DNA sequence: CAATAAGCGAGACGGTACGTCTAGTCTTATA
DNA sequence: TATAAGACTAGACGTACCGTCTCGCTTATTG
């Protein structure tokens, strides 16, 4: 591996190599724990170059994870709530199930439980998709968009972190259908009737 | 701290002291990472006494966490789906928000991402409440009880692990209401057709 | 290599192995600088065991050097000043030229220029022989024993540290002869004349 | 600090600043080890400017030390061996005791134990004075000039590197007297008488 | 007078060693 | 004979320093 020196300017190729190495080791640690020395060695970089730019091993790992999350998924439905929601959830579930995806997301979530910086970064990179979903729901006049977002992503993270159940397409579709049921009731006359019945 | 020697029999007081020490350090690590030496010192115990009974640090931590989770919550509603679900979720949310609760649950979840034993134990102690909710839902003839369980616990864990939002009573009630909406649709003709198809 | 554990007591076998390893690496570094990791590896010891008992790499090296210096040389002459002095210097020179000796002595002297602890230890282990020589000289009624000691050891260290000249037996004998000349003159009239001239 | 650029010619002011900085840091390291970065910073110079002109840190330090040693001491006695020798040793001792002198000499000697280049340079700058002394002794017909040179410089370096004793004027005078005693005996009839007595 | 060449301050870089910390194992001494 | 005490091996962590490299600037020399 050869990399051009950039003199007194930060070497972005080295930065990228470090993040790539970290990502590769997180995705497939090969039995070994992810080590700074291992990252440095795989990136062909001195350890100090890592510590010059990141405050700790976890910061590097998070950055690597973030980098990976930047791949944006565009998902368009058919304009109905059910169609849009289904498209969104299917693509979200699929995104988490890409190769290495579970390892990445569960690692970052585990880090976030301990490291405040990790917590911030986790928030930051979840918020983008969360906002997208919220906007989608609001476009359709859903009454409790926030709680519905939490249910949707709740299922996703629950499977990732707690139950380990696969995030398959069928689940996404069924979840979309259920959430649509919640939403459909609100603006219609039926909903008002229902609410009346509930009180 | 003084503890009676029990000779050649396993000293259960020591066992309890160890779990208490671990629990205390997990609940409030005071900036320091939770260390075996710290647990041993706080429990007034030799390290070997810990390793005699638990295979690893994580096992001790998990045991301490489990101990805490054993406090069972009984929650009875008014017999309607909405009432029972609300009672269940309110008590679940409240349980997670007991002092030290967030720290416990997020710690055990973080451990589970790495340690297979932790994963098993996490499953084991989540499954009890999960089953309770499932039974509740089935008693009310809900169509997709599994997915609804995941939605409910998804919101709980999502707030614990990802967003950090508080698990307040109001959220529990609103969530119960939304989930009830999903379920209420079931007796429609489409639903019945659907159910028929499934059976 | 196998070494018995000694439980909660310091393992003296490990101590010895560490010192031996350090000594071996100092005597023949094989091109590589003497490293704590290398010492630990060669001794079959964790690094922490070194740092538990010595404050720094140099402390270990010095201790290893001291250990080596403890080999006492007994040197008896024929009872005349020349004979005793010759025996003493020949054995001292020979001692410094034992295998690894130059490396040992020059290393410790180099360390002493920087490290206060090294300075103390160097003093300590030179003082024994220095005192022996001083006693020898006083037994023969030499007038300036201290300055003669410094000349004798001066030549030894000068060759070790500055010129690199070998400390051969012939030089020791000639040096003894010269120093004897200094001493012999003392009671003579010429000396008294000389002293008078100096004042 | 401002220094004129000299364009594509070597900047001798920078050279001098580097040597001065090195000398100052050697003379008073202030607890810190002497570092290339520290030298560069104190000299207001980029590190590359140091490495462009010297092959290693030790080369810079030695150059700084040499620079300082270039101050030549002229020492003339009264033409007798005792007088000339006294003058020479007194001035040599005084030279070593100039401010910063001990730090300089002990540093260079320590370096010489490790670095071959340092060894060469140490030889080189000691040889000048050593030769001067040798010439002086030969002029007076001394029999073992080489060994006497070593005795004289041996005492000097021994005090510098090993014992730390001050190199005061009185010691120099007494050493000169002792060495004169050695020398006086050789060419005279008294010496022959003595030698006969010794055998 | 433009083009080129080299020295320079700055500081990032690869590499190596340091000294610290923790996990988990082992033995002694205590009660 | 189970326990506390704590030394032990192993190995990762984050820091320090060396010597190399390039950038962007400045000045002297060349065409």
UniProtKB/TrEMBL annotation, chains A, B, C, D:
Superkingdom of origin: Bacteria
Domain HTH tetR-type: 12-72
SUPFAM superfamilies per the UniProt record, alphabetical: Homeodomain-like, Tetracyclin repressor-like, C-terminal domain
DNA-binding segment(s): 35-54
Transmembrane annotation, as ranges: none
This protein's UniProt keywords: DNA-binding, Transcription, Transcription regulation
Record-linked InterPro entries: Homeodomain-like_sf, HTH-type_TetR-like_transc_reg, HTH_TetR, Tet_transcr_reg_TetR-rel_C_sf, TetR_C
UniProt protein name: TetR/AcrR family transcriptional regulator
Upper taxonomic lineage: Bacteria, Bacillati, Actinomycetota, Actinomycetes, Micromonosporales
């Amino acid at each position: 591996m050869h990399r051009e020196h950039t003199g007194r300017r930060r070497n972005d190729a080295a930065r990228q190599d470090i993040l790539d190495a970290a990502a590769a080791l997180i995705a497939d640690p090969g039995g070994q724990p992810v080590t700074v020395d291992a990252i440095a060695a795989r990136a062909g970089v001195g350890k100090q170059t890592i510590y010059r730019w990141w405050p700790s091993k976890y910061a590097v790992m998070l950055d690597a994870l973030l980098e990976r999350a930047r791949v944006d998924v565009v998902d368009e439905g058919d304009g109905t709530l059910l169609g849009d929601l289904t498209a969104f959830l299917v693509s979200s579930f699929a995104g988490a199930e890409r190769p290495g995806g579970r390892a990445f997301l569960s690692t970052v979530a585990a880090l976030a439980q301990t490291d405040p910086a990790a917590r911030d970064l986790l928030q930051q990179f979840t918020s983008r998709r969360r906002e997208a979903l919220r906007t989608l729901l609001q476009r359709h006049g859903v009454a409790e968009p926030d709680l519905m977002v939490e249910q949707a992503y709740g299922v996703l993270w629950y499977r990732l972190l707690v139950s380990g159940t696969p995030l398959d397409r069928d689940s996404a579709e069924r979840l979309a259908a259920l959430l649509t049921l919640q939403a459909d009731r609100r603006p219609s006359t039926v909903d008002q009737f229902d609410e009346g019945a509930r009180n």
